Amino acid sequence: MTYEREREQMIADIESGVALTRAMTGRDHLDPRVMEAVRRVPREEFVPDNMRASAFRDGALPVGHGQTISQPYIVALMTDLLELSDDSIVLEIGTGTGYQAAILSQLARQVYSIERIPELARAAQQRLGEMGYENIETRCSDGYLGWPEKSPFDGIVVTAAAPEVPPALLEQLKPGGRMAIPIGLPYSHQELTLVTKDSQGKTDTHDILGVAFVPMVEGV
After folding, report:
1. Most distant CA pair in the chain: distance in Å?
2. How do residues 92-132 score in pLDDT, each as one tens digit?
3. Residue 83 sits in a domain of what CATH number?
4. Number of domains composing the chain
């Protein structure tokens, strides 16, 4: 199946989500490059086989090990918040099945992605390699520590909720860089937060939107 109709409905649902939340996000549209990346990456390849028919619904889906693939609107919004260029170097915390990394790879020069759960990390590495995503490097480690030897990063996206911004990630964000991260405790209020760092290294945070993410767990 090509899922073309479902894919276009997903795009329409993302656009509806943008319109509904523009008062909170300050965005009445997303970068056309982001929308094209979402359209291009085959989301059905990043969900369990028995959920392919549901892959394009605008909601999160379970992918095993207590983890989820985020809803398409949130993936698109978090990607848009990074304001990436073709030359950007990006860090993702929480590879999952590799979907967000695949989206980022369409917009940046290099993507580094960390997954804490070994089974997910191995499967994502194999999937991304077989699909030809050559500018993505993954590893299994503690996302709270980031990937210091590959830093600094133009953008960092965190796909699990932390109680606060991890200091190591803040340190690894390049001056002028942007981080999208959900902040909050499990099963309570979480806020998608944009962290920016100016040319002098001063950081600022902006609450964007209420969200619900699985918790970011420390350690391996």
Report:
1. 51
2. 999 999 999 999 999 999 999 999 999 999 999 999 999 99
3. 3.40.50.150
4. 1
